[in-house]
Structure prediction request, 955 residues.
Amino acid sequence: MSTDTTAAAPEAIDGEALPFRYGATLAAAIERRWQDRWEAEGTFHAPNPTGSLAAPDEITGEKFYLLDMFPYPSGAGLHVGHPLGFIGTDVLGRYLRMKGRTVLHAMGFDAFGLPAEQYAVQTGTHPRKTTEENILRYKAQLRQLGLGHDDRRSVATTDVEFYRWTQWIFLQIYNSWYDPARQTARPIAELEAEFAQDKRRTPDGRGWCELTSVEQRGVVDSYRLAYIAEAPVNWCPGLGTVLANEEVTADGRSERGNFPVFRRNLKQWMMRITAYSDRLIDDLNRLDWPDSVKSMQRNWIGRSEGAQVRFPCGEAAIEVFTTRPDTLFGATYMVLAPEHPLVDVLAPAEWPAGVDARWTGGAATPREAVAGYREAAGRKTDLDRQENKDKTGVFTGAYATNPVDGREIPVFVADYVLMGYGTGAIMAVPGQDQRDWDFATAFGLPIIRTVQPSDGFEGEAYIGEGVAINSANADVSLNGLGVADAKRVITEWLVGRGAGEAVVQYKLRDWLFSRQRYWGEPFPIVWDEDGMPVALPDSHLPVELPEIDDYSPKTYDPDDADTEPEPPLSRASEWVEVELDLGNGPRKYRRETNTMPQWAGSCWYPIRYLDPENHERFVDAEVEKFWMGKDPARTDDTGGVDLYIGGIEHGVLHLLYSRFWHKVLFDLGHLSSDEPFRRLFNQGYIQAYAYTDARGVYVPAEEVVEAAEGGFTWNGQPVRREYGKMGKSLKNVVTPDEMCERYGADTFRLYEMSTGPLDVSRPWSTRDVVGSQRFLQRVWRNLVDERTGASRVTDEVPDDETQRVLHRTIAGVHGDYTALHYNTGAAKLIELNNHLTKAYAGRGVPRSVAEPLVLMMAPLTPHIAEELWSVLGHDGSLAHGPFPVADEKWLVADTVEYPIQVNGKVRSRVTVAADADTDAVQAAALADEKIVAALEGKEPRKLIVVPGRLVNVVV
Prediction:
């Protein structure tokens, strides 16, 4: 046997030494030894069909690619909530390996990120040093949990060799355009050829040869899937950087430092994800994902059909997208977002005669009013602008013409309209929109209903169904038409007069892909003397981050919104200013000084797990096809990871961005799968109780005790319990290190998997962990002599009842593991062991029952299972099976229990042979003492037997 007696301090019961009693000390010794052995023997190494990790002879059974959403390695390490999904995937991977499947399960790290950079700014420590130290800490914590990862495949997005291929993928996207006619990405060279051959006209109609080379490049660049554009961003001068929406507080200040944040347009790298809007929506139907996530993605993309309408306004025209063109006759004013480019153009020098004082914002001129309002709006977040109930705005001083009736309607600037949605302009129909109603009421604007409200309606804006009213001119009338018909008629009328067209619109906006930070992937782009971007050839990759002395961006007066970002990389002058030969002789260039966002590496890391040692390609084509290729037996199969497990918080952006990158690579022929994740599963969360004393101060949760009379106390004083997210501030953090030290990793794994379904959040209770430990101790005592460490199993033939319990457990655990119902699988194993404890008390458990029990425990509690397997006389690991198979003959019930109802109320129960016919069931029911007493000598008027279910007696 393999138990190392020197590793465990002997325990004693009633003074008798029990050196092989299963407790935390022995568990720790067992766990470390088996983790070392798995690592040394490469137990979880997944074979590739070709390449450096090739071992085609070891590919057995059907492949399965199992994947976790990989973590960010923070300095705080893991708490017990983090491993919930990781353990869940590990249980499934171990089960599938034991069933003969070839399983790929790897773990890497999403390692670029703001925390390491902030620490670098504060301490001067290079973020790589901090990041790599944190990764080592995470790896040690994950290893002690016994997770069956292929350690050869681990990657971090900060590895230079990894981000070399992130840069390569960026260049594939940059050097591509989306052809809407073919609905696919194509190489940019093919677009250039179409222009050069006059197969495609230039935007201004000139011939290709009539354009200068710079103009030609500008035209081509406007088609690229990665491009430079001005975009509204959250600019924080006090921090010297652009912030994500999540980094801005509700009152428009930076979460870090509490500086003012302004919305303004800055040149940024963008990804043309909107080109894929339809495919991103339509292909959701082919994915085995939770409906909630699909809905989140559909809502985020926000596809809607409507009309693009032009409202003439002086020399300009305001473009508006509306899903309700049938309400055009009710448009009584217009609103532009503060960032709209026409705001500056439309505002005249003087107010029009007779302007309502409520419209001016107290400003002397329209231009002053607009400038002041824009500055104030720039301090608010998009979320605050949308949720603010108080409608504010100013009149631009300009009027637009409603195309359906020629009315002049005022044009306002208001922050409840966002530039990021639609065209950044709306036609306001207060009769049919509550926000417009509120604004119109506040500013004294007309309200015209264009939809007949339902009977009894007494509200303000009416948003329900109804026929059109007040909607006619000399050429067209919508009155009396339903919404659908009215939309069709007015859209045809607009198109016929050149005032609009039918369009499909999306809420989705192109992906802002720039960060003014140091700790991120450098762009493989340089800028030439014409100020044009130039893609670096593959031979110049990777572009590595330079060493710099100051990791912070340049900061400014917090209130100076007109400043410009100066990223940390811009100060690395020797790195920025370079002379390169890119095929046309040595020339001077300037490197891009923004870095990619943290999302970049996480968009494609599942692909690199497949072939991490490949230095020639980001993945070998045969390897990718083996692990992620489409199933030829399924016509609608997308290919991709077989199961992806992670939190619902990544249900939109991470998944959407990953799908976009994957589809581009598929279109360009680099991948055989056209989606990254076939099946998605969202695990729940582990939350924790926290406790506050009379002062409202949080106290250490683990020191709180439950009072006998009810309630909870800390140091003898009553405390109040609340329920929330585990965290340092609530003093309720529990680490897996603590649990492994106190109970062992297997106990911790079993507890996490037993407390509820994997997809449901549940509370953490350290005091309850001991229940899982006691189960493992009982199994150990049933199979191992605690004094000698020898096996206690026998060659006795199990009795029939034990056989039935065993094989029903086997069948049930198979189903539970397959369905990720680990809590019910664990419960079945506990029931089986309880049966063995009673049936074989004082004597050994039959080997033919002990071995299946150990094998079924292995996915949940692998270390103790491996040790017991060794104690039972097996030399090799059980990691690759066999997994027990139920014998069907023991699954057939010998007897059936029938509840007996008298006039609909259950009065008794009777057990009969499973093959008893209806007459035998009736006879047994009528002979039951309780039924005889209930009948009181009366003859039943009716006797109904539902086979296998119940007997109903009607008196």
